[in-house]
Amino acid sequence: MSKIKNIVVLTGAGISAESGIRTFRDTGGLWEDHSIEEVATPQGYADNPELVLGFYNARRAQLSKVEPNAAHIALAKLEAGLMERGGLLTIVTQNVDDLHERGGAKNIIHMHGELLSQWCRVCDRKFKSAEAFTLQSQCPKCESIGKVRPDIVWFGEMPYFMDTIEAHIQNCDLFVSIGTSGAVYPAAGYVQVARGLGKQTLEINLEPSEGSYLFHESRLGKAGEMVPAWVDEILGLL
Ligand code: NAD
Ligand code: ZN
Question: What long-range pairs does 208-213 form, CB within 8 A, spacing at least 24?
Fold first, then answer.
């Protein structure tokens, strides 16, 4: 453990649960009472764009009512601690919320997109916005109307930054998965990538994830308690 310098942390909805954002699987595969097919697939968007835009508008509005929790804040502390020692923390998140950023972390990869980002299908540009979007919303870049969609990677679409993520796993000494059910690929497969490269692996989750057996160690409990304790352990050990 004393040689740990570079760490990749993969996070999922479980790390934001204690902030009051409901996870996916914990509510029987529904996300805020909607099915995945309805609100998180390209087909769902094609079938009912108003519903999907409304769903993401509501998720975006919810961000101003929630705060980062002790787990998000502890990861920012780990990032600063590793940096002081010439190391690097890379947070690869499946979450579309902004709680890692607001917890103080800097090096964050949003592999499934961001609630606060929008994507214009005409000019292909992305832009940050906290506003609600409608079918009449205008792209601030090319001024096209009605062609802006949430910058969210839906089921059936390719996650972002996959090459960068694999390069970070290649360069890490420890791969840690926090608050993710291990059901959504390719994120669920990163533990196997890490194992294949001979990396140490740790899981922190409320319950064993689907790929729990693939980790060297599995710590079960709430992220808000387990993550700060683990971070103090790592920083004390370095
Ligand atoms: P998931 O809902 O499938 O799994 C969440 C996991 O977190 C479960 O294994 C659960 O046991 C665990 N968990 C619940 N509370 C916890 C706590 N307090 N501490 C530690 N672990 C806890 O989520 P996922 O694996 O991220 O995959 C689902 C997809 O849904 C992702 O692609 C994500 O983009 C999307 N999603 C995102 C958010 C968000 O941005 N906050 C919320 C819901 C869904
Ligand atoms: Zn545009």
Answer: 209/177, 209/180, 209/181, 209/182, 209/183, 210/181, 210/182, 210/183, 211/182, 212/182
